[in-house]
Amino acid sequence: MVATWELRARFAVRLAEMYGSEVPAYHTLVDVCTEVNAEAAKVRGDERLGSIERVTAERHGAIRVGSPREMAEVARVFAAFGMAPVGFYDLRDASASSVPVVSTAFRPVAAEELARNPFRVFTSMLVTEDRRFFDAETEERLKAFVSERELFGSELLALADRAAAEGGLDDDDAERLLGLATDSFRLTGEPIEREWYDHLERISAVAADIGGVPATHINHLTPRVLDIDELYARMQARGIAMISEIQGPPAWEGPDVLLRQTSFRALAEERVFRQADGSVRTGSLRVRFGEVEQRGIALTRKGRDRYDRLVAEVDRRLGEEQGGSRQEVALDVWREGLPSTEAELELQGLGFFSYRAAGVAPGAERASLRELVDAGVLVPEPIVYEDFLPRSAAGIFQSNLSDEGVRDDAQAGAVYDLDRLAELVGAEIHDPFDLYAAQRDGSLREAEQILGLRIDDDTRE
């Protein structure tokens, strides 16, 4: 029996091998990440945000689908690898460009499963009924086009369902599942209808990449790095064209929070097109790019509210002031608005931490969490942010588009939230805040067992 976590680990490796063969610059990105991680680990001397082995092996992928049916089938495929949908991301209003998708991320949800292999796939679904992007005729053509294609065959879905139900597969079936699942995300060689693709691309390059091609594919495969600023500089030194800036929080002397991302620019890839007269010609598209990420501490709801206010303040100052890059302005705002130490982040209830018993329990039946932390009996350890930021994701998409597309904001947008997407997918979509809180609470229950006392959680939001 090949257990679920091992299926997931093998799947991540298979996709990396396939993607590297399709996008050779990905190998350069991974090589530079490995160099930077090795050096950063020596300097830092701890593994507070993940072991060097985990960080080096860590990846997230990104795919795009065109309908609720395709999203529901994706959920079945990823369930075979122990990956559940987590979080709701609306990229439609997160960017000035035309990005007509809503998204979730499939990943492990239990801490022990994340430690074994934290592979994630950010999965976006085209919102064809949103009139800001698509008129009625285009919507109907999109629905018809998507309904006629098959992204995942019946054999793959049957194997995936069995793997999810049984917690794994025997060697032969596991190999078959991995082969079929990997192939389903391979770049297709089938001809692309030029007129239809061009029509969608004028509206949105993202829409064309989803609804203008006969299959889905890995859009990017993202390694994790411990120092994204150093990675950015080294990639440029190697002659790799990077996007203009790093998305997310600025580099600063305080604790890393949430997620910072950047990428090399989308490369021209040869594709085959069918022209209006029926002839087939070779052309190229720029849709796939090489993304990299640096992960920080997960923020509580209170912390995320603070983060969102800081981002809004950066926008306000950039709109009012002349001079200064976004990173420079953000650095000033961060220094004014966020604690400069992990200890203060934990004390103010802004970040999620687990708690490790490290001292001698006081001679009492119960004690407060704050008392135990102050006495050194409990040691707070940061919980890594495992999820994504809509604005950063949209910023990466936008930075790699050659055209911003069009949108008519006079029209009404289609209403989506976590519950509606979950209903369409046919699976529960986990709230990431609940998952981090459960990890935090689980560590306190474990500490109670070790210390033999009741811990009063006086710092809970």
From TrEMBL:
<keyword id="KW-0408">Iron</keyword>
<protein>
    <recommendedName>
        <fullName>2-oxoadipate dioxygenase/decarboxylase</fullName>
        <ecNumber>1.13.11.93</ecNumber>
    </recommendedName>
</protein>
<comment type="similarity">
    <text>Belongs to the 2-oxoadipate dioxygenase/decarboxylase family.</text>
</comment>
<dbReference type="InterPro" id="IPR047869">
    <property type="entry name" value="YdcJ_bac-like"/>
</dbReference>
<dbReference type="InterPro" id="IPR009770">
    <property type="entry name" value="HGLS"/>
</dbReference>
<keyword id="KW-0223">Dioxygenase</keyword>
<keyword id="KW-0560">Oxidoreductase</keyword>
<dbReference type="Pfam" id="PF07063">
    <property type="entry name" value="HGLS"/>
</dbReference>
